[in-house]
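Worked example 2:
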Amino acid sequence: MDPAAQSNEERRASVNMQGAADRADKILDEVLAGIRPEVQWAHDPTTTGKCDVSRRRTVMTVISTERRGSFLGVVERFWRKNGYRIKAINNDADVPAVYARTSDGFGVSLSVGGKGQAFFQVDSPCVEKSDVAESTTPPNGPAYEGVYPLPRPNIRSSFWSAGAP
């Protein structure tokens, strides 16, 4: 059955929160692998609700004010190419964001905050309740295990951190 055609009840019966967390990790893995030049990222806390799970990754590479639009554009194009529906775009110069939804009902977002730090988040639809393990995807930079909140971005990129557009 097409995941988009599944009812909430069918989805809850076929996927549990760990399965949803694994799917969220795959979504995050794919989008981060599609960013060139590569950015370094670290895990942010996983949260669970009554029937949903959210996975987060924080970009540790500084995204300069001049490159923020390009960064969001790369991600938006990747999501569109992969069949995600763009729900909203915030074009604020300081804190821009893009919000989308996958065909199987996962909400995805990219937002840029203070000091050019970018945050990815994937929110699952309502699924069957279960325990959720931490992500097994290793970060491509420092792990910052046990550190919360994460430090501000501290990795410089000749491209993403550049002051010229």
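Strands lie at 41-48, 53-59, 85-90, 97-101, 107-112, 118-123. Residues 6-123 form one domain.
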